[in-house]
Amino acid sequence: MRIFTVSDIHIDFAVNEQWLANLSDSDYLDDCLILAGDISDSEALIARCFDQLMRKFKAVFYVPGNHDIWVRKDSLADSIEKFFKLLELAQQHQVITEPKRLNGTSIVPLFSWYDLSFGTMSDTLLGKWMDFSHCKWPESLETPEAQNRFFLGKNKLQLAHSSERVITFSHFLPRIDVMPDFIPHRFRDIYPVLGSPQLDQQVRALDSDIHIYGHSHVNRSVKTKGVRYINNAFGYPSETRIAAKVLLEIDL
């Protein structure tokens, strides 16, 4: 069984959804796909995505991204309700959102958010970051720090079986130093909303060999302190330089 990954497919864009539809119906039937969040904020599109992928792959793993739990198009009470509804939707389609061992590899989904610790918040970011208007939260989870604690608290950090290797994955970044040096400073104002170092604590508590993440839309493979961090984001149609726009096979 081969293991492939992609994130941030954003199939609200017709060209992205067409790429998904054009994936082979026969090449990956014995393989696994790790989908690291950001399909769409439309439940109907997410369901359609799950349906297509389950016909193309033997197993599909998934964690919701920030766009997935926007509630601007839904009648749901808040983004937490949307989160749990997406987990139910995944279960209905046999998409995996919990740790599972496959052929000697434990694959562990990790839920998370950002805690604003990767940079300094600016008025520009407050004005342009759409999570601040498209997500809704219960009163007990009004701050990003509280939201991150909530999602991290849902993770299962005890593996049921020992394995030869562990692959963890999340939508958000577990450490800011996975971002490459070539990112211009004018674009680094989004760093506060990229992830949380508390996520990396869970990655390392699981003794992960490989951690896959999304969200930044910057394709990346870098090894830091014994863990290989991989981002293979599909991204928006215009993002042709920083995103490869293909499935990536994980070299085990």
Q: Give the biggest sheet.
A: 6 strands, mixed
Strands ordered across the widest β-sheet: 4-5-6-7-9-8
Shape: globular
CATH architecture: 4-Layer Sandwich
Explain the overall architecture.
With 252 residues, this protein is of the alpha/beta class. It has a single domain, classed as Metallo-dependent phosphatases (Purple Acid Phosphatase, chain A, domain 2, 4-Layer Sandwich), CATH 3.60.21. The strands form 2 sheets. The protein has a 6-stranded mixed beta sheet with strand order 4-5-6-7-9-8, with no helix packed on it. Strands 3-2-1-10 form a 4-stranded mixed beta sheet, with helices on one face. α1 links the parallel β1 and β2. The longest helix is centred in the first third of the chain and has 14 residues. The protein is globular, with a radius of gyration of 17 Å. It starts with a strand and ends with a strand. 42% of the residues are buried. The model has no long low-confidence stretch (mean pLDDT 95). InterPro entries: Calcineurin-like_PHP, Metallo-depent_PP-like, Pantetheine_PDE. This is Metallophosphoesterase. It comes from Candidatus Thiodiazotropha endoloripes.
